[in-house]
Structures are given as C-alpha cells and as structure tokens.
Design brief:
Layout lengths: L1 H17 L2 H4 L6 E5 L2 E5 L8 H10 L14 E8 L2 E9 L7 E2 L2 H7 L4 E2 L2 E3 L5 E12 L8 E11 L2 E9 L1 E3 L8 H7 L13 E10 L5 E11 L3 E4 L5 H12 L5 E4 L2 E3 L5 E5 L5
Parallel strand pairs: 1-3
Antiparallel strand pairs: 1-2, 2-8, 3-4, 4-5, 4-7, 6-7, 8-9, 9-10, 11-15, 12-13, 12-17, 13-14, 15-16
C-alpha cells in the first residue's frame, strides 16, 4: 500500500512538471488558525518547514489521499495560539472514498511524538513568521499565498512561541494601473526631445516603485530599454532617455496604490511597458 501511495504521488508531481509553468503556479488554499478567539486564514504550512516532519506526516496519510493544484500536500491543518504557543490542533484531508477525513489522534501523536506534551502538540520546530488573513481579498495574485487581504496579522515565532504580533488594515486606492498605462505614457512622453525615436516602439521595464499613500510616484527604476526589433538603447541610468521615461511615469497622478502591511505598493511589482508616438 505504501508503494502504491508513493507511486500516486510520483505521478502527481510528474504531472506538475509536464504542465506549463503558467498553469501550475497556482494559488494555494492555506490552512486555519484560531487567534484571540477569532478564526483566521493561515497563508502557509508550518509543518512543511521541517522536512523530516513533513515526510513522517506524508507516510502516515491514507493511500487514496486527494492532492490538487491548490493543495499539493493533500492535507489542511488547523492551529491555535494558546498562552503564546503555536499548537497543532488537527489535520483534515480528503480521500477518493470520503470527503471529510481527520487524521486520528494516535497517528498525530506518533508523527509529532517529539512535540507532544500533555495531549497537545507544541510546534517548537517552527521559527519564522506566520501570515494570517481575514476579510476580503483586495488584490488577487494567482501564485502561492501572494494574494492580499484587507486585514492581515504577522506573527513572529521563535521555537513555537509568539514573540511579536503586528496587525495591518489594508486597502486599495483607485488610480492608473500599470498594465493599462501604455497609451497615456505614449501621449505624455516628450517625443520632440528624441527625434531619432519618433517612429519606433520603445520597450522598457520598470520596478522598485516608491509611492505616497494617495498614489503619487516619487521614484522608479527604469531598465532594459529596447527598440523593436530588440535593439538595446542604453544601460546608463543617467541617460537622458531613462530620465525622460522616469519623469513621464512620475507625471501620471494618481497611480493605483495598495496600502499593504505598512507599505505603499503597486501591482505588479515589475512590468515591461512600451510606448510609440502616434502619427499626426
């Protein structure tokens, strides 16, 4: 039976390899955690932080466990914070034969025997941060746990104990979206200063945005400037063309800005844009 389970897992991961990257870079469902009497979405899997523990858990799971693109491990753990300690409460999963299956207590005790004390499993193996979320998604990103929620809580954990708690209330301010800025950038760019490029598509990449809360762009990195077909124009950050592109970007107001976990960010974090002068 164990051989069959390992073979099924092997087939699943082979399928991941064969599917194009854009297809399997999927949003993950996450787990659950109770904190101060409230239920939060846990954006991560603390058990996976210990490879040996994750393997031991994998060996204890049923042969017919259902894995999916949104939950490649096949299980969903529920956690709780009690007296400042991160405790594993239960593990749920789905099988081919039954939708709701819970790992039995004796299996839990066996897998986590090094962390089992007085009927509870204290996650002393975990060091790092836990990201918890609730409320609506303000920015959906179809990749792992990257989607952004209106309320998020970051717990800093050392040996299974909470040492720092930060709660953020996030929102999105309407404005120009980066992926929709091509036409406006083409209109605003000072073409008269660059007559050699008046009939060319200028392609460039942007990243490292510095924004204010109301969507004013203070600074941005512009790089990889080409003209079609693929002629590199300059790598000099102080080149007049790069400076002109930066000023053109900064002249647009407001940009869409996401107030996220104490920072003002733009999505996507980087983008390749193109501009072309419209024929008069």
């Amino acid at each position: 039976m164990q051989v069959m389970k390992e073979f099924q897992r092997f087939i699943f991961f082979i399928a991941l390899i064969l599917i194009p990257l854009s297809s399997w870079s999927s949003a993950q469902l996450g787990e659950w955690i109770f904190f101060k009497g409230e239920k939060w979405k846990l954006l991560g899997k603390p058990i996976e932080e210990d490879a040996d523990l994750a393997q031991a858990l994998n060996r204890s799971l049923p042969d017919d466990i259902c894995c999916s693109m949104a939950n490649s491990s096949g299980y969903t753990a529920t956690w709780t914070i009690e007296n400042g300690k991160l405790l594993l409460y239960r593990i749920d999963l789905e099988t081919d034969a039954k939708a709701d299956v819970r790992l039995e207590a004796k299996q839990m005790k066996q897998v986590f025997r090094s962390y089992y004390r007085k009927g509870k499993i204290h996650a002393r193996w975990f060091n790092g941060t836990l990201r918890m979320a609730k409320g609506k998604v303000i920015e959906y990103i179809h990749d792992g746990y990257l989607r952004m929620f209106e309320t998020e809580c970051i717990l800093t954990i050392q040996k299974g104990k909470v040492v720092c708690t930060q709660v953020y209330h996030n929102d999105k301010r309407e404005g120009m979206r980066l992926i929709e800025a091509h036409e406006e950038l083409s209109r605003l760019f000072p073409w008269s200063q660059f007559p050699n490029y008046k009939d060319k598509h200028i392609v460039f990449s942007v990243r490292d945005f510095k924004l204010t809360r109301d969507g004013k762009l203070l600074d941005v990195s512009v790089y990889n400037i080409y003209t079609k077909p693929d002629t590199l124009l300059t790598e000099d950050k102080q080149h007049s063309l790069i400076l002109a592109l930066k000023e053109t970007l900064k002249s647009i107001y407001p940009w869409e800005v996401i107030c996220y976990n104490g920072k003002y960010v733009m999505r996507p974090e980087s983008e390749t844009l193109s501009i072309v002068r419209k024929k008069e």
